Amino acid sequence: MDKLFTSNDLELIKKRGSNPEQVSEQFNHFKKGFDFADLQRAATVGDGIIRLTESEKEKLLSLYSKLIEGKRIVKFVPASGAASRMFKEPFTYLEAEDEPTRTKALQLIHSLKDYALYDDLAAAMKRDGLKIEERIANGDYKTVLSYLLEEKGLNYGKLPKGMLQFHRYETECRTAFEEHLVEAAHYARCSDGSCHLHFTVSPQHQPLFEQRFAEVKNKYEQRHGVHYDVTFSTQKPGTDTLAATEDNLPFRDENGNLLFRPGGHGALIQNLGNIDADVVFVKNIDNVMCDQTLDDTLTYKKVLAAYLLLVQKQIFEYQELLSSKEEVDTETIQQIQRFVKERLMQDAPAERTALLEILSRPIRVCGMVKNEGEPGGGPFFVKSKNGKTTLQIVESAQIDKSDTRQKEILTHATHFNPVDMVCAFKDGNGKSYPLNRFVDAETGFISSKSYEGRTLKAMELPGLWNGAMAHWNTLFIEVPLSTFHPVKTLFDLKIK
Questions:
Q1: CB 370, CB 481: distance < 8 Å
Q2: Domain 36-83+174-493 has CATH 3.20.20.140
Q3: Distances in Å between the alpha carbon of 380 and those of 49, 304, 349, 457?
Q4: Alpha-helical regions (H) of 77-127
Q5: Residue ranges of the domains in the chain?
Q6: Alpha helix locations (H) across 254-373?
Q7: pTM above the 0.85 mark?
Q8: How many helices, marked H, and strands, marked E, lie in the chain?
Q9: Could you report the per-residue pLDDT of 247-275, keeping only the tens digit for each?
Q10: Torsion-angle region of residue 397: left (phi > 0), alpha (psi -120 to 50) or beta?
Q11: φ, ψ for residue 37 (rounded to 5)?
């Protein structure tokens, strides 16, 4: 490490809240890379993925209210992503007028009335004495797009997704942030009427979220009969990762200082671990429904949580038995083994301490959607370096597609995870597990980026729902595609 970093480097690393030894260890991955996942087979319905019967679903739904009684529930929403990627075609059109881009931009321009953002855009142009319909009729498309994207208008090119108008209703339009408030009121309401949400945001965007919440808080509280407790956090600088040159040396800026970059959403495991909650719903900022199509989402959120709480209750009972000083008879040990094998879908050791170790982990239940060409991490049985096979969510980049066997397993994948999870990370005594203990540090990712025209190698930490939760107890339940509506491009916001 002494050869890798100067004394000034070490001082900078410590000032950022990072551990020099950990930074050095991470940096070695630029040289040795990350191993591919060792897929054993795809998780499918009946083998890794649970398909609930209608009666099972109804029973879980009926139990939900009783199971969450007295528990603290929090909805956790990663919301730091900027919306700039959504506006690739409009941005390009402002700079060039090639035919494919022009065609795409014209589709947008002539259908603007079909977007919830239209009224705000028209109002922004009107403030400057411009009529949007007149500009479109005269072919002045660049002016219209500039008011959509730039600071003089809506500034959508630089806003976070959470601040974009997503849906239009008869009397209002709602941002993605507001839709999460509405959705949470239906299933993440505590017994005392409180509704806790936590958003991870970029530091520069936090004031925007706080201002919007202040503007709409009373309206949605009165409408849904809840009291909102909304908190925010940002990705900690100490979780940033060091960039490398193409020769695997520390990348330095024009002043000779080390360059750190955000470590990806896997860094949010610290933010998640800081939440005090018995049950945590995790959902991306851009995956929200409008009121008319919300029913399935609400149903399955409650179903997933009820399933988790029933499994957790059994885990707590077995933990208490195994951790007591009293003898546990062979029949009980075999019962716990069956639970581990059939319910948690893991190899079940015979040794008492090994069984207890498996039970003493955070737990998550993940909704799995049939894959119809959508991108997203897939469910697989994966063998770790210690030889144990467990259920994991694996990204495409983690799979060695040059390996015939791995590629064959990949072709049998039937589902993907739309970041629809319910988590619990307290033990039977109400103490939170330290989530960093359950991260697989060997599942990161290296990509090529640039800094002021210079190529660099960037490292992302293990993904939040991939390597960061690799050693959790994981269960997969099939949920309908109707619960999934991501917004990746501006055109996804067009009103159907």
A1: yes
A2: no
A3: 10, 19, 21, 29
A4: 88-95, 99-109, 118-127
A5: 36-83+174-493, 84-158
A6: 269-273, 295-323, 330-342, 352-359
A7: yes
A8: 16, 19
A9: 989 999 888 889 998 888 888 999 999 99
A10: alpha
A11: -65, 145
